[in-house]
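Late entry, cytidine-5'-triphosphate complex.
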Amino acid sequence: MLAGKRLLLIIGGGIAAYKALDLIRRLRERGAAVTPVLTRAGSEFVTPLSVAALAGEKVFTDLFDLTDEAEMGHIQLSRSADLVVVAPATADLMAKMAHGHANDLASTLLMATDTQVLLAPAMNVRMWDHPATQRNLATLLGDGLRIVGPNSGDMACGEYGPGRMAEPLEIVAAIDAALGQGPLTGKRIIVTSGPTHEPIDPVRYIANRSSGAQGTAIARALAALGAEVVFVTGPADVPPPAGVRVVPIETAQQMLQAVEEALPADAAVFAAAVADWRVASASGSKIKKDAGRLPTLEFAENPDILAGVSAHATKRPALVVGFAAETDDVIAHATAKRARKGCDWIVANDVSPATGIMGGAENAVHLITPEGCEDWPRMGKQAVADKLAARIATALAATQPADKTKA
Ligand code: CTP
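Prediction complete; structure with ligand written out below:
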């Protein structure tokens, strides 16, 4: 799909630079031409010779190479590509970009380019979480740069958390999406995620233990394949992914309204842990303690958003995916839930405390479709999301795009 595309790949100085070698190989396999630029720090991790050998092109390493300046110049180099990819994008490179520094070839190219830029950040988890990096990230996203990753996991420095560079194939998918070539380009997909908060009074609420991690990973994976993602999220523990339209809500009723406003869509994935009940008698002012008298809460049933969208007369998405969080008889309950809610697929998981899935980094799911039940091995939530997104792309490939003019 990348045949004929020209990519300028800037390799920053981080241990993840070794993955840039595999990335070059994957890109060339897909027919892209890769012009590599290696920063001075990058060349401490991979050699110009290996980069050049894999790219099949000369490596650019120094701004003040007079021959190249005469032959091509950094301005032309920065503009002759269809996309500029920075992998790994180190904390230092991101800081330079956010502040407009141009003191070596890589940063000068990034300043001089009029081409879209995709960053694949990689750094120690503390460096990623540092307010300075997060400020720079916000600036760069505001400037319209695209980002893929970083992923969470064990890091070369021995710590655990976000900061690991996206895998080469994830970067390839993000490149496809940036070039408008992803398998989900042109498809709108609604993703609900996180818990809902149902107020008791202005300061108290009923909630559940959902972290929003699985829904967030699904939204990220769908966006990476090129989908226009409307991400309707309750108050989650994890930040929303880049590159999606975020619609923050608190209650189930607000979630329903946001989902209805986002229709029509080609697919909808209901990963949210929606509260089944709200407090019917929610108080407009704080409930005060009253000399030994206990308050009584009355509940009302919340609308079932998944069932409602599955039964929608005119705007039912071509593919509706629900989740089933169960603690026993997972497959039997989830199979019954698929029929009861009228959705196409159910992603079922066991959320018993012993599994550590709710709020944890991994998931072990069963995909229940009209054809039967598939057991997926336990894996990271992003890996589950990537696999599900790929399946959704295959399923939607055969469908007509939703008529967004009906919105
Ligand atoms: N769901 C929804 N709206 C609700 C409740 C659930 O859209 N009011 C969706 C969830 O996002 C999920 C699926 O329905 O995709 C199943 O949620 P779950 O809580 O497992 O099912 P319930 O219908 O609440 O059934 P039960 O609690 O009896 O297991």
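The mean pLDDT is 91. Will revisit in the morning.
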